[in-house]
Specification:
By secondary structure, the chain is mostly helical. It has a domain of 107 residues. It contains seven helices and two strands, in the order H-H-H-H-H-E-E-H-H. Strands 1-2 form a two-stranded antiparallel sheet. The model has no long low-confidence stretch (mean pLDDT 82). This is Phage virion morphogenesis family protein. It comes from Stieleria magnilauensis.
Amino acid sequence: MTRPKATLSGDPVQQMRERVGLAVTASYRETGDHFHEKMKDRRFTQEHARLAGFLPRAGELESRTSDVFKKSYTARKLRMFGHTDPLVYTGKTKRSTETVKTDVISSILTDGDGIGEVKVTYPQAKGFRRRSAYTQIDMRSEFSRVTPHEHKELGGVFAASIKKHIRR
């Protein structure tokens, strides 16, 4: 019976560092893609707004028969567009989140501190940049808020992806 032999030329530590770095980079990218494909649309639901702690919009806490509600932002959305979805008025910003840019930084390949990141941006979603002077609502931070359940889900995606890439 012959035993397989592995021959390493060059610096084996550097080779392993590069291989792991590439695996981590690919795993971050897959995690960002998972967020875009599976979690992005959840941000526009009442359930996610409740779980993520979105600030209530004008009229959301009022009775729908009250005069205060009838003059509110929520009533105007309901009357004009037939919905009360969070982060959506006309739907233009929601549609613009189909265009995505994913940037990945794997620090194993750069500075070696072990901390990397994936940044998923939506360059066409200009509606998240608007801020009213009359409220404390920040739609950009609300959209990017990750609930503990989602955090765990993304961690699982990253862990499964890194296992898959390291085994190659």
